[in-house]
Amino acid sequence: MVTHPREIGKTHVAVVIALFCFAVTPILLTEHFKEDNKHVISPNQLSGYSDISRPMYGEVLDYPYDVRLCPVCVGTSLCEAAKEGHLNITEKISIEKVLSGKLGSEDVIGKRLINNTLFYQFDKILCEIGRYDNREGCEIEDGLKHLFDYSQVLAGSRKTQLRRAFDKLVELGMNLRPSGPLLCGSDRFVDGLIDMNTNGQQHDSEEAMMGHYQAMMSFVLNPEGQLLKFFEDDIDFHFPRNYGECGRMVIVENGGRMLPEFLSSSWQERVQIVLDIFNLLDHFLTKSDDWLIFVPDINLGNFARAPSGDLILIDLEDAIIIDKKETGIANLDSLQFQLKGGKPCNMDCFTDFSDNIFAEPEKYCPLVTNYLDFQQAAVCLVFLTDYSTELLLDKDQVEFNVQSSTNVKTGGLLHDPPSDIRDQLNTLVSKCVTESVRGERLQAVNDLKDLLRTTLKSRKHEEI
Question: Cα-Cα-Cα-Cα dihedral of 453, 459, 460, 462, to 10°?
Fold first, then answer.
């Protein structure tokens, strides 16, 4: 029996499932560090700090932007807007590093790469790295340059350099976990993501160097803002728009209404959301000829219904990006990808794979395509069963017994189904969560989608 913790905020429901890599490796913080603003280092706290801030932005761009610590930041493209009052990020949402506000008339979300505790650790480490040749004071810019040795960046694999920097930060005491792009991103993907920050500058220019440093820092700490920019003009993925950056904050489009807000909606609306979720995950696998996006962190709080009506993924931090061309993955037609081996793969199987991908990413990242149906299993378990209903009722602990999971009942977004399809729904959702033979899950998902489309059409016909 596995006990699953979860975090529920006012407008955010995060169901942490101990089934996949990013759910089983939480950041462990010591008691010394607390989640408050006192650990955000200001220039006055950095004795001997080389003042490389932008003084024209003034005090208005202190917390949450921390522009004074640039260029050890993610950029300044929206700092002028913040200075002029066109960008206002003020209201904390449910977790410390996410705030809401306005960019002109647009509702936006401000996301700091990491929380204050981790930034405090990061700045302290850069201070120590920057104190070379017995120098006094704290030079975090020099620390950043030593962490990402630019000569090594140009001479060799930037992916290797990123992993070395990550390992260095962990070795020096920073409580980080590797992101999906850092684990499985190809050299082609990493190079493309970092190069888009140079703005066409020559590699040996100061602007290009700082673009590289800032991109690599973002990649190691939290690559979400970089991912949004990378995919914005590439293909029609359903993500929030990235408006730009100011200091240590990325400003993105407000994704709209998160899925927990639809739990009391009509049956028809909830069914449409379920269909849209499955279609969105399929879209991530098949839309691009270059990239496959695998979403291991499946929870209601990571998806939203945008004002346009589209369903979008609003949290990309843990997404795994697989290079189809580098790995030789054939085109995937809908969900009919090849699942190797005859043994069924359920929650224990997915957990084993998550351990392996952390231990040997080079070996196991190309095998992600053998486990893509984890997403369907997680959607069924977390979104569509009575298990998910218990989670949403804010119980302190919810237990999910893998051995009895063949008898789950529908709940969550599919609560209170019409009586004429209830038994069939229970059967299909149970097979989706736990298959008895390999491939049964995908067939169950296809049958489930057919059933939901049919019932949706019949209900609409009855209303005419």
Answer: 150
Q: Kindly state the tokens that stand for 413.
A: 């977004």
List pLDDT tens digits, range 160-212. Answer: 889 889 999 999 999 888 888 888 999 999 988 888 877 655 566 777 778 88
User: Within 13 Å, how many C-alpha atoms sit on residue 83's CB side?
Assistant: 14
- Looking only at the bridges linking them, the beta strands covering 87-92 and 398-400 are unpaired
Compute the distance between CA of residue 297 and CA of residue 276 in angstroms, rounded to an integer.
Answer: 17
Sign of the C-alpha dihedral computed for residues 379, 349, 159 and 40 taken in this order: positive
Higher pLDDT, 20 or 97: 97
User: What is the CA 385 to chain-centroid distance, rounded?
Assistant: 24
- Mapping DSSP to helix (H, G, I), strand (E, B) and coil, where does residue 418 land? coil
Instruction: Tell how strand 398-400 and strand 291-294 pair up.
Output: unpaired
Q: How far apart are CA 143 and CA 149, in angstroms?
A: 10
442-452 pLDDT tens trace? 999 999 999 99
Considering only CA atoms, which of 222, 250, 229 is closest in space to residue 74? 250
SS3 per residue for 101-159:
EEECCEEEEEEECCCHHHHHHHHHHHHHHHCCCCCCCCCHHHHHHHHCCHHHHHHCCHH
| 328 φψ region: left (φ > 0), alpha (ψ -120 to 50), beta (else) | left
Looking from the CA of 431 toward its CB, the CA atoms found within 13 Å total: 18
Structure tokens at 278: 């499955």
- Residue 66 token pair: 């921390």
Listed residue (437, 440, 426, 446) closest to 384, CA to CA: 426
Q: Locate all alpha helices (DSSP H) within 340-417, ordered by sequence.
A: 347-359, 361-364, 374-384, 386-392
- Nearest CA to 365 out of 460, 459, 294, 463 is that of 294
What span, in angstroms and rounded, lies between the C-alpha atoms of 368 and 327? Answer: 11
Q: What is the band of 60 on the pLDDT scale with cuts at 50, 70, 90? A: very low
| CA 251-187-289 angle, 5° bins | 75
Contact 241, 232 (CB under 8 A): yes
CA distance 250 to 244: 6
